[in-house]
């Protein structure tokens, strides 16, 4: 019951934040030079006043700013995210078209990074000071310091072009008309490179974080108690240290799970992954306001959702927690 | 030729829509040129060829154009195509939606369909380039039965384009690909040969190159990879390139030079700019040789180019002398690059270096398409990169950039420089209305000489966009618009 | 202070980082002397591999510009972007965090909601939008990076202030009748400074990465030579001329690495318990 | 003998304060015996215990000696044997009950884990055993405790859980490293009794480490006195405490504050400087997930008067509201109700600007000598900044600071140094000097000596007495230690759950406590039973 109330409270708060975000973004985006009509005119290779006026009228851009804002918001309140005139489709459809791809990519990257990161971090912490620790720490540092797009370029060069192991772009073999299991296998094959490159950076973060947290927890009193009980080191590491050390990692993961939705722009660009990061970037360049706002709204909502989920997970893992509403 | 097979082509950027009657930007034409058709096609010398019209006649006074249409043509939804569709498209639909086509319509008195397979265009006055206006991008024929009486821009059918072309729209997975399939009921037996075309969206130029290399892509239409990549890709086994298929467009690059204010308003200063630029270097290095130096507002690849036009060769000393003469005081000149990819950025940098070298201070103003458009439309620039199509005739593709009646804020496609010369205005006006090619040449030669003398704009290069494709793709580029309608004839030798 | 230096210098990684960073800083400072010409000047034939020509140890790029000159001048830009945007982020985040942490209550509520709000918007996307609005220019990029990177500062500072505020010496200062400003700046801030320094060193690193990512997307300032620009410009020819992209990539890698190593070193030397709060 | 330690030396890592933690110590513990190790901080008590457990932190290595138990040398065991030995033959409990249990595991699992680690019993049996253990250590509602997480238990309960875990496999030796230091007197008394009882019942040997002579007197059969890693004295408790052989031991014993208050002073003539009436403070914690919104009534209708030159002791166990009272009077915290007057002035109603101007009248000395001085400021700054803020001239303030430093027993040259260059006792003196710099009328000392070693504690207490006389201060002395209160306070206020349960002159309260709670507090003070050797020694000495 209390959980439910808590969740409802959080959702209400999230709605307020989202509302503020919508307004801010609306103002920001409209502050950018040019408008969608101008972009379309710019791309068309020919245009005149009439052409622009028709477009602006059609897009509703001829109306005063506050009316546009009001229309957008009242649309949202009716769960209507507006229409992309450029792409001639409802924003909701466009986003839903692309969202699964992004979720798949970031989800895979997320799972990969957290699993790999935690394992590497624990391995380093357990062997602190030994060569394995040094190797993991150095590797994590290097990954952390390398530009993501750079890794992506190198990965394509090596694994697609030189070795031919993985496709270099896209989410599926276009036109192969695979179905069922074979289809998913194909998608998985395409997923390897982008998910890995996107995940590696976060792997580095989790590894470093886990290592630090693990070492810190290992110095706590209850670990000494566990030793005094005669437990084996492996069991102490697993049941006592790791479980406590993982908590800050969970927090970070929650924060980042939301952020990588927006952060996938680079990966989606390099790998031509048809996700919403790319949709956002294109929409920005095309001043496709509604789409851009929609993507922002959705990804902010994701962030809030993931934060909530993290807090709920925290609740499961840590009995001490007192959630403040 | 063999039938069958599937082909993968890059489309870049992802088009905003495929309804060619509404949108005529590059990628839309690439894809939709195979869905929609017009009355004619043009061979590489810009001679008209049959398309929806199987034959046509022009009256001697140059005022009456009569087209006989193919019979048995069906729209992709199974409805019959008829001359009414043509009249509707030209007279109603495109009049409302197509800015460039409207220019031609000004010379048209009436468009009629005496019978279901005949269309007659009656002109008010002779209009030299009129026969060049029946290309799919200029005058796409749209289905009357779907659009008549509706709001064209909001018609839901825009999402599933219906044409008469050799390929039908099948699926568009946004951000990923557009799938076209063979039109089984195409009115020419045996055509097309291909079963399907996948137009793939790959946002990153390097990724496009890799996709071609790894065999996932068969055709890279012109401009889809950076020029630096072309020689490498062209050098691969079983890869062919061609610079053909751009004759109709003859892309012509130049910088708008703000003729209104600042130093660029001084003709001598503009001449100095011309002498300062090493356009051979730009051609060889930035365009990898896939270009020619542009000496005139008219492309050397189209009709009416004057080979004797005065040429500004690379001559920094002369540039400096001219700058001294006008007393240039070091006020920075703003360069607005074209936000179309790395090549264009490098180009702006090269221009900047050339100008810096003769002592002209410069500053590159980076923007995206929207910003570029806005700055040009608002005349907020000193030098602004652009490239324009010639559309086969100076009356269609050149005059618009230099005549004073075309000076208006709000569009980057009119006389953005703000060049005003009554004599030039008159020359263009006269030339358009002449039917005889010789008379027209004379007028255009005069116009070119004057515009070049005044440096109304800073011409850079006549661009070629090599199409890169696997050699087993045959007959890909057969017309003056290349892949835009190229898959009608293409076949796979596999 | 001495103990701090000793601690810091005992850390091999930190020393390596310091040396690396010093090299970068020195190169940035003396860039105009080793490469007096503008890095944009086309000085040689394009696409010359490293060492192929005398004096062009890093080769030339697509327009025949000296990559060495680009690296040296780019070091200035990258460092400036990193430092200035971190500074600006600190200027935003520090007061917000300090006020929230010190005064608590309603202030804390308002300021932290504000911070959360900025943390909710995906930061990279926000940076892109801001640059697009301001149109790519160095100041726009710096501002965008600052705007997306201040929230962690605010949170960290708030946390520190929250815990330091109840320290007994702060209570004693209140009892001494010192003004809130005095307490914030003289009593609390100096004690919160080590984690802030550590965070700042890491922020410089991420700002450099962020700038390069923006450049990669074509949102860099075209008038200044930065490493991100060089990679962005060179990636299309990565296959023909690896050196155009690889050297600036390595430069970023090493600089960011150095900053991270220093950050970790500072972390260990200044405050061994910071690791989890830092991010 | 359950265990015998012979000639044990443990080396410290390079850079430590001395080369060895202990050198050549020898002792043994017999079954059914409680052996106390006592000594000042850093004397090597914990290292000794950890060596026996084979739980030395990295860097510390036994360099000589043997620890014999059941015919084996514990130092020579393999890793597996060591693990086997821990928990089953030797068990250990630690000082900090708050952190010694895994916060994420239920009590049940933590106890059962001991069996599991040693492969004892089936799953069901383990649960049953755990239940029995929890009952045996006297925890209320055992099934509920088993299901609880550590954070849901009080400190004393957690320490009982620790003991239950230690007893699980009936070890022959129980090592307790200051298990009661962090607890209230009453809880401490219960735990000591529990240890004693259990030992009687199970007949095991107990090695009990403490720095509190009172605890030694209460529980030990035999005592070892350690200093600087060496044993300076050992023997039966009655002998060592009753008739200490070495100066060191004697000093330790004498430093223990006596529970016997000195003769009362006559203060009837003095003016009232502070008068508090009906003070209330309620904390509202925002509701949490498991805990609904909660109100804590930290203090409830507290009233008292304080005269010029008088010392008022506020005593009570943890959480009784002592600090809250002090902080409200210092106006570091706003009470919900009640009046505080300084003489005629309505102190509690001063607005913040006026308050800041008069802050100097009430000053505090804090508990933690490490946290109460700004580590980034020089002593000079720490001492003078308040005075300067009040408008005093910088040079004058410095001169006064020098004077005060000498008054509190520090060299004037200390001004140029930083806090970390001083010992805990010295820092506390600086803290006192800082308070005096403001020329206060009222000094509130919140647990001002609790963190100090007994010997240092005695000196600081003396200093307080001296200063009170010199400056004619009114002092509110907050402490949980009745012995300390007995030493310095003229009057005592006993607090319990936010309310004042008893107030009166120290002598009266100690001699004839009127409230049950006061009585239980007094009874819980270790080592002062009528027949205690400590009482004897202190009475004579
Ligand atoms: N991990 C360690 N590293 C270095 N020195 C240590 C370590 N643990 C203890 N020491 C040193 O060993 C000596 C004995 O310490 P120990 O902890 O046994 O003292 P103690 O008597 O238990 O003191 P306390 O009453 O403060 O707990 C001290 O000088 C201490 O500084
Ligand atoms: N800032 C606060 N917020 C909420 N509750 C508080 C706060 N400070 C104190 N309390 C609660 O008020 C009660 C009294 O606390 P106080 O610190 O006055 O006790 P104390 O007698 O000084 O105890 P100790 O001996 O442990 O210092 C306790 O229950 C405590 O939990
Ligand atoms: Mg100890
Ligand atoms: Mg207290």
UniProtKB/TrEMBL annotation, chain A:
Signal peptide start and end residues: none
Domain of life: Bacteria
One Pfam family it belongs to: BPD_transp_1_N
InterPro entries with a match to the protein in the record: BPD_transp_1_N, MetI-like, MetI-like_sf
Statement: the UniProt record of this protein carries the keyword Transmembrane helix: yes
CDD domains referenced in this protein's UniProt entry, alphabetically: TM_PBP2
Membrane topology reported for the UniProt record: Multi-pass membrane protein
Gene Ontology CC terms, in alphabetical order: plasma membrane
Keywords of the record: Cell membrane, Membrane, Transmembrane, Transmembrane helix, Transport
Membrane-spanning segments: 12-32, 103-126, 138-167, 187-207, 245-271, 291-317
Residues annotated as domain ABC transmembrane type-1: 99-314
Gene3D superfamilies per UniProt: MetI-like
UniProt keyword annotation of Transmembrane helix present: yes
Cellular localisation: Cell membrane
BP-aspect Gene Ontology terms: transmembrane transport
Family: Belongs to the binding-protein-dependent transport system permease family.
PANTHER family cross-referenced by the UniProt entry: ABC TRANSPORTER PERMEASE PROTEIN, DIPEPTIDE TRANSPORT SYSTEM PERMEASE PROTEIN DPPB-RELATED
Name of this chain's protein: ABC transporter permease
Species for this entry: Roseovarius nubinhibens
UniProtKB/TrEMBL annotation, chain C:
One Gene Ontology term, aspect cellular component: plasma membrane
Lipid bilayer topology: Multi-pass membrane protein
Name the UniProt record assigns to this protein: ABC transporter permease protein
Keywords, comma-separated and alphabetical: Cell membrane, Membrane, Peptide transport, Protein transport, Transmembrane, Transmembrane helix, Transport
Protein's cellular compartments: Cell membrane
TM ranges: 12-35, 79-103, 124-149, 169-189, 196-220, 240-263
GO biological process: peptide transport; protein transport; transmembrane transport
